[in-house]
Structures are given as structure tokens and as C-alpha cells.
Design goal:
Number of helices of chain A: 14
Shape of chain A: globular
Distance between the termini of chain A: 32 Å
Structural class of chain A: alpha/beta
Strand content of chain A: 15-25%
Largest sheet of chain A: 6 strands, parallel
Number of strands of chain A: 17
Strand order of the largest sheet of chain A: 12-9-8-13-16-17
Oligomer: homotetramer
Chain lengths: ~400, ~400, ~400, ~400
């Protein structure tokens, strides 16, 4: 049977409790970036707002934001973004008595993962599900797979290759990360090292500790990553691949940054806004080996989206890290909804994805490999038919 | 015997190899923020530069910077800060052949900690040393103790008290951190919760998840932390104590931030510059429970300082975290020089410091506690003698 | 107000559901060490068994055992211990329909700790509670505090001292552990090293790697730890202190053991039986820095005890380890009942206990230290008044 | 080029320092299980002993043992095993002055892994090397691959399959572990659960917590794992596969064990002896997800072996665990010689091995998958030839 996303069952708004509920109350913003007293604080959860007797449903939701009524629609905004005069939903309790319905039961309860499940658990089904989900989102006309990568992901030879193939096969629609991730990836493509170590052999190359800063200096000289790649300086790597495929990446700055690269957004407000724009499109989010950027994504991203066909679908977040604590924190921020924790080495994770998510032609061959070996060898031996193979 | 900082032995510049070494070579910056080819990349290590036959020694050093000759002195600058026309030291090998001497042997070899030492090790001596060092730096006229704190430090009742007492007793000269740390601390002083949990009992208070954002909203309404405190809103907490004692704190923004608080520096370049200014004064740095800010400090801070009395002293960095991986990364960034890793719960660490670093009057009493109990009780009972105590 | 243990409220056996419940069904053991079909599997939870219309309550319970009716009482036995002819309670569902009542609500719900609570949490109240609990159990005439120690606990100078003082002050009634813990402790007392490192300075002593095996060889020559200590070979350490105070310790063997020491129990069946005998007396269990022995204790120990005064009290288990995963596993085995996780460095934990659990005379002085300092100094100076102190 | 094991270069015994070295000194054991004073303590390292002017070389070495001269050969024995009258090599310094040569330089220095290398590192080359090594050892006539498995390895559906295929393809020659690992594996084959959770879906099955003990009870009733399998009770699993292929497994008991299974060795002395017998044959050791058994193996196993062809080859140990601390401890015990740390989820590791270590026929097909896709598709399109494929 074909893979299907979990279905969302709308509340039965004919029920008396919904009918009886009043409209939302609104308060006016008096000062830019400051919410009115008793503002209602949003979460990622699917939430309905009653206005003029109708239940409004915003296209996506976000943690610790406010709900603004704008042209008869609910928009979810960061407090820092609201402007004087805007109308903000009020309520402390966030319940039907104030015209608000946080609807946790729209999806089947299996949408919630088990607390504490992460280390020494069975991952077979989680992988299986992820692979189907990735195929589904790649093939959907509004599927949008966002990868959030920490610097250690781009260090490894196999992982670099795997990320490239995943991008080429259509499984990456946007990349979020920081200066270090991008710098290491470009250093790999420019000088075949990461922080001065040969990417494949891990041997330190002579004067290799310069490579990192030399790369930064070169890109800063040319003025942009784009022009640096265009000048033929970069042999391979995920940034080069994304650039050549016109797939966007958002690089947010932090005080740890060397350089930084010209495209890195140093103003955290702007970085947050750009990151959120990307996450608002997401239908699947894969966070790997970064606490900072994973938690940022976990805080900002909606747990659902209204798809082009009008259906409400969950936005799954996979959190992949070798440190259990990181994964647990991300899960807590998502309230475990549409959340899958995977405590593993990130290289293994990325390479597993690549191996599983092959093209249809590759897949046909791979299926033969799964045949019982006797049969498989027999087929192989019908030499007359097969000649060249 | 009184506590003494490790002494730095200068190289014997009379030796032939130093005499024979040429002057440094310089290159001119042609474009702001871009280093000339073959620039020399600095580390935290004590480093001498030969110029006009003299060995220059900058007041502090920093990782991944360039050395600029300015008015016959060497200044260490971030590449992003250098300006067109400045003269930058050139060399790839960074050795005597280019007039550069990275001098790792100025301090005794015990200044280097053992690789891999962190978990399940003996800490008694490390604590003992830290306490003496803190007393020494508090009492030095140019001692400057910088604390780098993650948000989890201010969650706990005992730890809040301990930090306060440490500040009051003179053991905190500057605080570095982010928006979350400061927000949690102020929430504790404003509403007696941290992220909505009662700080002492850890019980969730009703609607407590609003407290965090309410605090942010209130401070943003008033316009500054300073005015918010002045208005009497904050009962206690380290930020209040530091404010009342005019001890500086630098808050660097990141894309994870709610709010943020008005004093948080959202531009990462500015945040880096302000952080570095603070670190340049440091004679001791204590990093607790934050990977982002600890690594940032580890990257920027010098491993030594030239003190007022002309002596060169090490700038110790203590890295305290319950996650071994964080501590190991910080240690690697410091090349294990003047570095002490402590893998422990941060509350235990801070409370330990507070208990050990008491005032002289408190100490006198505490010493009695250390007496063998029989003697101790006997003394206590001989009331006539009590005068002397 | 004086500290009180949580009270246990008995079920109201007058209620119809209890009255209507049938007696338990029994099956006969046909073969030593093998349970009859449909045997009922026990947990640590308080459990009542109806027999002849009466509700029997065993003195303690244990995970994965069977309930045996013996002389009109319920005894909880390991399956390996049951003998042909014994009568074992049958039931798969373990409910009233089979005369069994697993009573999770006897204690207030605060007896259960929050899942996932361990890292970066507030510990002030947990410590406070532990210290009161330890004092209470020390002063109870049937209090019995069992410490379960891993080898890393005895490595550190301060921790060795702290353990000694805790034992001398009456806070240790029994010690459980393995060969390595005991060997390291004795090596410390014999040669002032642990695995060849000086306990205080952590410096490797010359030929120090022999110390460990030399100690083992010496004790094996003499034939017992007891005689080895009696011969004056051991200067200090917890094993010496326990021996001199006639406090029992049980050392269970494992395949990792060097030596082993003569008192180490190499037969795992015997070791399990001896460990369980100790745990059956426990009113408080503190597990530190050992996964093997902590999980073993978590599996075997009851979560409650019937005290001398007839009251049912919880048997708290504290699990202390710097690795979150260890603590979480122990908590899972206890179903989070009467369980407190503490993720911290074990040295800090032990030293904290020692500092807090001082004698009454020490405490009187310590209280003065807690006074506001002005007052404190004033009191100190009014010599005439000192008599009262 | 064909894979080759690192070569061992013998010392040049013609050199004067070797010629001048005296014969070893021997001491006589006076009491069973107790070494004579000044006994020489062994390590895993290749070590030569001069006797009657000849340099003797034992077939394998082991940590913390003694060297016994027996019929003009050196045998390495645990102290507990030595008997009255045996002749033990004496020396504290273990150097040429006592006729002993610990030869760390026989292999190229690349045999030592880098300290601290484990987390966030590049694994591509390590995997590549492991796969070649496994193939080499499988195909050598004295290759012997020992797997040391913790219980979490057998929980997962994919991992169970992967282990089976690895065994069937000849990559497992011996399995070491404990009672839990074996019990979980058999529970999976008997009831399709592990600790009551469905192995694939991870859902708890009704009354599933009985499955674990029911399995133990059933096997104990029948009397042996072997007979339990023979009776057709076990559908699949690694233990069944090994049994059917007559591949040995050694199960060592511990005080954590439920049951235990009849084949579990409860006497730790016997368990150690049996484990060591297996390890003495090993040419490659893969330790996964168990601290107890990994450290036990790390302590006992030689770091080299004398192969049938007379060559000395390293015995590589791979330590695979999601907890860095475990891997670091194992590495320390091996002195990082012929040691590869891999911090990852154990399922990913095992499945990676299985996917890489396919049969020659499978491999031929797999190689096509590696072709550039255009070419690959072209081949596939020659439909006339291929028909059925």
C-alpha cells in the first residue's frame, strides 16, 4: 500500500461547546515589539481561533509567539515583530472560554513519541518511516525538506558524498546552519581538508591549520561564496551542489564564528527572520549534530502545515545527534509531537539515508540483492541472456 | 606558604639562535577585513616578534587572529577588524626564520593538563588550586575574574544564592552569557520561577509558561534591564547583584533567543568585540554549562597576561560541564594550556566555590570545625577561655 | 517541624471490590528453580495478597520474583531459589480477580519522580531532602543506609575523607560493590595511590602500575582483607573504617576482576543472595558511579519496608552518576517510585553529603556561619556573652 | 592491491644491547594463586624474554598477568592460576637489564590510534578498513573474529537480521556476552518481543513483561538453550544461527542476571577462563554496547598473535558504543594499540557491516550500482538481452 501521511481529523464544530464558545478578545499593540497585557502565547500545536463565529486556522504555528488578527486571518508573529496598532489575541488560559482551541487530538495519538525513548532503542521502523516520508515529500508538489546541519556533518568523506547524492536525488530543499558548517564544507572542496585534516585519511596536512582561515580569507577577498564557487575554486561539497541546483541555504551567525563568510547573517534578528521563512515552508525537518540550530528550529517551526490540497499534515522533525541530551532537549521543545529522536553517529545516519533513497533504476537492482541467494545466483548464471552485465 | 602564580621564564635572547633570527616580514592590508597572502595566524600562546632587533611581546594573544605592527608595538586583531594600510606579520611556519618565537616553555610543563583527563578523575587538588587562585585574583589589584554562564546555572535556588555571595565577596568581575541565562535569572527574581517552575520546589506554577515571555515583555516595555531593576521589579538574582555593584555583563545574542532583552547584543560582530574587550582584561576565566559561549571564550581569550607589575602570568580557564564532550572541546581549543576540565553538575561546582570562598571572619569559625571533634567540643565547653576565640 | 517520612495509606479493605475479590490461586513447584505455568511475576511495588479472606502483605518486594505462600505468609523469592513442593501465587494479570492488589497509591503521588528529570535541573531541594532523610535514618532504630559504590568513588582524596567521616558519623550501615572499588580503596591506604596515581596529586608514581597488583598479591598472600588490615598495612580508606566499626560490606565478583580479593564472592548466585540480604534491610539506598551494581540493586531492592513500628515507609533510591544514561536506566528499573536521579560528579556528591551531615556540635557552630555577617561578627566580639554559645 | 595486515618487524637481536642483555631471572611460586615478590607484570604488548641466550616470544600476551617459564617456553598466566612450584619471571622495570624486551615498535606507528579521537570524527576510512579486515580474517585459515555483544544489540529487527547474515556469511567465529543479551535474543525468537516490546514496532504487547521471565523459565525447564532450540521453540536470532552453525558462544554471569539461562557461567573464575580461551584464538575483536564485557575483553586479549604462517599480526579491537566514555575506557585499556573507537548507535554499525560484507555474487551486482548512473541505466535498457531481470 502506498505511503500516506497521518490524517488530521477536524474538531466537530457543530458540538455545543464549540458553538457556545465566544469570539476571541483582542488587544492593541501600543509599542513596537511589546505585546499588550494578557497576550496569548502560542505553541506549535494546531490551534483554532473563533472570530465572527468562524473558526480561523493559521497556516502554521510557532512557539512563544502571538496571534495577530490581520485582514480577518490569524497570523503568528514573533513579539519583536509586532507593530503599534496591530491586534493581538488575548487570553492566559488559551481555552474555549476565550475562543481558542488548541487541538492536540487532530492526529492519531501515535503522532507523539514516547518520552525517554532515544538511546539503546530499536530504530528499524523509524528509519523505514523516514525513508518513506522523504520519498513522499520529494514527490509531493509542495513537499519541502529542510536540513539543519552542524559542522561535524561535513567533515567526513562518505557523508559529503552522501549529502551530495541526497541533494541530487531531490531530497534537500533547503539547508540551515552556521558559519562553521559552511566553512568546513568549502575548505573540503577547496583544499581537501577539514580544519586541516585530510577528509579521507584524517591525517594532518602540513600547515593545515591555515586552511580554515585561508579559505575564509579567500572568500572574503572575492566577496561571496557564489563568486568563489563560480571562479572554480571548489571541487565538491554540499554547498557547491546546492548552489549549482539553486537550492537555498541560510547561514546564521554566532559569536563563535571565524571570518565569517560573507553570506553569514550577523544580525540575529535578520537571521531569525530568514530562518523562519525557510521553516514556514517545511514539510519535513531533519536536524543533525547541532544544538544551537536544532533548538532554534524546534522553537520556530510549526508542527503542522496546511498543504496545497487543503489537507493538514504534520511537520515531522528528526533530531539526530550522538549526544542524548541534545536530542532530548529538542524533543521537549516539540512536546514530542511529530518528533523522532535518533541518537547515533551523524555519518551513519546520513549514509543510511543515501543508501536507502536511491533512484528507481538503482532500486530495481537493489531488490535483486534482497532475493534469496540461491535464486539470485541462478538468475545471474543465465549467461546467455545477460551477456554484458 | 603563600599562593603564587606560576612564573614565566623569558627566553634567553642572548642565545645565538635568537640573535641570528631576522626581523619579522610585514605585508600591507589591501582591503578591509582581508589579510594579505601568507599572513601569520596567531594562537593563544605567548609569542615574541623580532622587530628592529628587539623582541616585542603583545599584552595578550588570541586564536586565529593576525599580528599587526602599530606604533612599534604588536597588536593582535581579528581579520575582520583589520583596515586597509595596516601592516600584518607574514609567515606560514611561524618560526625563528621569520622572526617569530612561539614560546610554549615559558611556564613550567605542569601548566599543561593531561589529555583525556576529565571524567572519573580526582578533583580535590583542582578545587583546592582554584580556590587559592580565586582568592589571589580577588586580592590582586589587577585581578579580573570572568564568569561565562549558561542558562542552566541560574535555575537552582542554592546556585543563585551561591553566585550572589561570590559576587558580594568579590569573586566576580565580569559576566558573559546570552539572552536565556539573563532572562531566566530575571524571571527568578521577578516571579520566583525559571521557565515557569518554582525555583526551589521545581513545581510548575499555574500558567507558568507565560512567566518567561511576560518577563521579556515587561523589560522590553520599560526599555532596559537597568530600569526594570530600578523600578523594584527584581527581588534577587545575579544580574540584580551585578547591577547594584556596577559589575559589567555582556550578553551576546543568538538565533535561539526569545525576546530578546534590550541589552542583548544582536549584531554578532559587535557582540564578539565587546566579549573580547572583557576577556582581554581577564586573569581567570570560569566557563560553566554553555558550549557556545565557552568555545567562543576559548577561541578569543589569551592564555597569558602581562600584569601591572610586569610579570607574565597564565590566564587559567576552568571548563565546567556535565557533558564530557563540551569540556574536551574547550580543552582542545586551549591546547590544554592553563586549562582545567571539570565534568560535574554545575550547581555542585558553584556551591562548592561559595562554601570554600568565605570571608576571613567566616573562615576563622570554619577552621574550628576542622579540629578533631573531641578537642573541638572540649574547647567549646571551657567557657572561661572563649574570649580568645 | 520535624522531618517525617511519607505516610502510607492502606487501602480501605471494607470496600466491596476488595471484599468480593477471591483468594489467590497457588501452583506447586515441580522442579527446583522453575516456576509453575502462569506464575505471578512480582515488582517492587507494595502488593497485597488475599488468602483465607485476609490481605497478606510481605515485608518487602522485589522485581521479577515469585510470591510463595509459606506458613500463612507471603515470601518473595527469586525463581532460582524456589524448591520443589513450594506453593507459588498464580496470575498473569496480577489483579483483584486473582486476589492480588498492586497498590501504587499508598504513598502520595509526589513519591514518583518526573520522567526525564536529571540533567540541568535544580537539585537544591533534592539535596535538602536527602540530608534530612539520612539524619532520620541514622537516628531511627531500624534505619539502614546502604551505599552502592563504583570504583571511581574511592580515587579522590576529598572523597575518601568524606566517606570516612560519613561512616564515623553513622551514615553508612552497609556497603555494596565489586572487586575494583575495594582494591582501589585498599591500594590508597596501602600505597597512597589508586591505579598507580598519587591520590592527591594525581601524579603517576614510579612503577605505580604495579601497585594495584601488588596490593592484590599481598592480600591474597595473607588470605583476607581483615587480616591484611589487622597487620597494619592500611593507613586509611573506607574499607578500613568499615572493618574497624564492624559495618558489613558485600563484594560481588565479575569477569573484569583482577585478583580478586579473597572476600570477593565469585559465584554470582551466592553474590546475588548476599547482596539481597543486605538490601532487604535497607531503608535508604545510595548508588554511586556503577552501572552494574546500581542496576543490580535497583532490580532486587524493595521500594518499601515495614518498619519496626509497623509503619510502611518508602525505600528511597538515589542514583548518582555523571552519565545521564546510567541514572535513567536505574530510574526505569524503579518505575520512578521513591527514586531521585542526580547527574553529577560523584566526588562533589559525596563531599556535599559530608559537609551537610555534621555532628550536632559541628552544626551549632555552622549555624552561626549562616547568620548575616554583621551580626555574626558582632556576636563573635562580645566576649562576655560567649558562654552561651 | 590486495589487503595486507600490518607487518611486524622483529628487533635486530644482533645488536649489542640485545646481545649484552642477561637472561631473565625467575622466582618460584610458593603458594597457589600468589606471585613471588618482584614478579614481572605483563601487558598486551609484544614482549620478548631472553632465556639461555635465546629470545622467547609467547604466542599471545595479556594485561596484568605473569610470565611463567614452562618447558622452555613462556606462558602468560593469570596470577590466580599459577601453582606452587611454577617459575615466574621477575623484574619491576621490565627492561633489557632483566632480559625483557617490550617491543612497541614492531608494527608501524600507524597501529596506534590518536588519543581523544572518537566523537564527531570522520569514520569513512575506519569502516573501509574494518570491512577489508573482516574479509581478510574470514578468508584466512586461522582468522577468528570474536564479537562481544551487549543486550541492546539484539533488540532491533534490522540488527537481528544483519547479525544473522554476518554469521551465515562467515564473519562470526565466536560470541561473548552475558545472560541478558542471550535472553533477549531468545525472547525475540520465541515470542517476537524483547523485554515485552514487539521487536519491529516497539509496541508493548499485552502482558509482555512476562515474556522475559517466561522464556527463562521455559529454558530452565527444558534444561539447556540447545535443547530449547532443538525443540523448535526459537524462530530466529543470532543464538539459533550460531547453534545451527556450531559456532561457540560464552555467556558470563553477573549479579544483574535474571534466571539465568542454564549455559550462563555463574562462577566468575570459570567464566574468565572460558572467555580467555576464546580470546586467545582471536585475530579480530569487535566489542559492541557493553562496558562490562568490553573491558573484560580489553583486559584479557593479546594485542598480537603468531599466525599459522609464523607471521606476527595485530589483533585489532573495535569498540563500538554510543557512549564516548565506554569507548575511551576500552581504548585506554588497550593503550590505543590496534584499537579503533567508534561512537555510534550500535544498530547502524551492525547494519553497515552487513551491507558492506556481502557475498561475492552480491558484490558483483553492487558494483554496478556504483557505476555512473547514465551508464548504469544504459545497461539496464538493453531489454532484449535481459528479459526477466
Amino acid at each position: 500500500m502506498a505511503f500516506q501521511l497521518p490524517e488530521f481529523t477536524l474538531p466537530n464544530f457543530e458540538e455545543e461547546k464549540y458553538q457556545k464558545a465566544p469570539d476571541i478578545t483582542l488587544g492593541t499593540v501600543e509599542r513596537d515589539g511589546v505585546a499588550p497585557d494578557d497576550f496569548y502565547l502560542t505553541s506549535h500545536m494546531p490551534t483554532f481561533y473563533k472570530h465572527n463565529g468562524e473558526w480561523l486556522f493559521p497556516e502554521h504555528n510557532s512557539l512563544n509567539c502571538v496571534a495577530v488578527l490581520e485582514e480577518e486571518e490569524i497570523k503568528i508573529k514573533e513579539i519583536r515583530e509586532i507593530k503599534r496598532g496591530e491586534e493581538v489575541v488575548l487570553s492566559r488560559t488559551g481555552d474555549l472560554e476565550h475562543g481558542i482551541l488548541v487541538y492536540r487530538d487532530g492526529f492519531d495519538e501515535s503522532i507523539y513519541s514516547t518520552p525517554g525513548k532515544a538511546v539503546e532503542t530499536s530504530f528499524s521502523e523509524d528509519y523505514e518511516y523516514l525513508f518513506k516520508l522523504m520519498e513522499h515529500e520529494r514527490d509531493s508538489d509542495d513537499g519541502y525538506i529542510v536540513w539543519v546541519l552542524g559542522p561535524s556533518v561535513v567533515f567526513d568523506y562518505d557523508t559529503r558524498n552522501a549529502l551530495n547524492q541526497l541533494a541530487e536525488n531531490g531530497y534537500i530543499d533547503c539547508l540551515l546552519g552556521g558559519n562553521a558548517m559552511c566553512t568546513h564544507d568549502l575548505e573540503g572542496g577547496f583544499l581537501q581538508t577539514a580544519l586541516g585534516q585530510n577528509i579521507y585519511t584524517q591525517e594532518n596536512v602540513p600547515m593545515g591549520h591555515y586552511n580554515h582561515l585561508d579559505l575564509l580569507n579567500e572568500v572574503r577577498t572575492i566577496g561571496s561564496i557564489k563568486d568563489f564557487i563560480a571562479a572554480g575554486n571548489v571541487k565538491d561539497g554540499i554547498i557547491k551542489t546546492l548552489s549549482s541546483m539553486d537550492i537555498p541555504f541560510v547561514l546564521s551567525g554566532s559569536i563563535r564564528d571565524d571570518g565569517p563568510l560573507p553570506e553569514v547573517i550577523g544580525d540575529t534578528d535578520v537571521a531569525l527572520t530568514e530562518t523562519k521563512k525557510a521553516l514556514d515552508k517545511a514539510t519535513l525537518i531533519i536536524c543533525i549534530a547541532t544544538m544551537l540550530h536544532s533548538l532554534s528550529a524546534a522553537r520556530m517551526a510549526s508542527s503542522y502545515r496546511v498543504r496545497k490540497d487543503g489537507k493538514i499534515s504534520p511537520v515531522y522533525m528528526y533530531s539526530v545527534d550522538v549526544t542524548e541530551n541534545v536530542v532530548n532537549k529538542v524533543g521537549a521543545a516539540r512536546e514530542l509531537m511529530a518528533f523522532v529522536p535518533m541518537v547515533t553517529n551523524v555519518q551513519d545516519f546520513v549514509v543510511n539515508c543515501q543508501k536507502a533513497l536511491i533512484t528507481p533504476a538503482q532500486k530495481e537492482f537493489a531488490e535483486e540483492l534482497a532475493m534469496p541467494e540461491e535464486e539470485f545466483i541462478k538468475v545471474e548464471n543465465i549467461d546467455e541472456l545477460e551477456g554484458e552485465i
